[in-house]
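FORM 7B: Structural annotation worksheet

SECTION A. Query
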Amino acid sequence: MATPADGLTAEVVVVNNFDELEALGRNRVAGKIVLFNAKFDQRLADNGFEGQAYGQAVIYRGIGASAAARLGAVAALNRSAGGADYRLPHTGALRYANDAPKIPAAAVASEDADLIAHLASEGKVRMRLVLTPQTLPDAVSYNVIADLKGSEHPEQVVIVSGHLDSWDLGRGAIDDGAGVVIAMQTAQLFKQLRLRPKRTIRVIAWMNEENGLAGGRAYANDHKNDMANHFAAIESDLGAGHPLGFEAEGKPEILTLLQPLSVILQSQGAGVTRLVEETGSDVAPLGAAGVPTFAPIQDART
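SECTION B. Predicted structure
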């Protein structure tokens, strides 16, 4: 949501988490700009939990504005959610709740968040915001899908995927051009090695992951009566780092089934397997329908 054309000026209050926001209460938040200064857990990311580290930080971008608005804040800022700084504010999705006023919101670079927090610890900080976002009408776009037909069970599908769209300020090479290439290369390797998969390998480049997840939801809706034939779904959306293994969403028995694969990949340093609550945003609707979902664990340090 944009500010008025001439901007918005107010005092800034800094919090590190939602508990601190609630502790301040309406009396100290109303009429203020709230800065969520939640730092990205780089150690967690460096130990193979990049997705979890990102999830812990990005929640303040996703729902922070509504949490602040419930206490009367006039705007919300969040520390950019990621391990790289480079003095860049990040772009990303924000979801306004129905039970709170819509207030302007934006991200600030990690270095600037630190500076604002330091200044606020020394005294009052007032900030003028001029934000000009706009939401344009929806346009028709498409998932891109290609099948490598299975030899024994062609009706059963294994999805390998990444998302096609990216934010306009970047080239999208890492998020998620890399994931799309990984999916395409999977099918290419089957052809190069002259292997015939028993089940159909379906390569999908999802559309609209970044600001709506429409592609993944549309696919799940279109195939809602065919979920029993979806054997598994894999999404790569964590960059292009060296693979460390696989994470899975589903029953604990999945890890037992993955054990032979883990042994094979161990020599490549990619033998880690673990269960997580969600492997990927585009395949999440499939996971909710009971399809086992997977994602490569990737080294965030590279």
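SECTION C. Observations
The helical segments are 18-29, 42-46, 50-70, 110-122, 173-192, 214-222, 253-265, 284-288. Residues 8-129 form a domain with the Glucose Oxidase; domain 1 fold (CATH 3.50.30.30).

SECTION D. Sign-off
Analyst initials: ____
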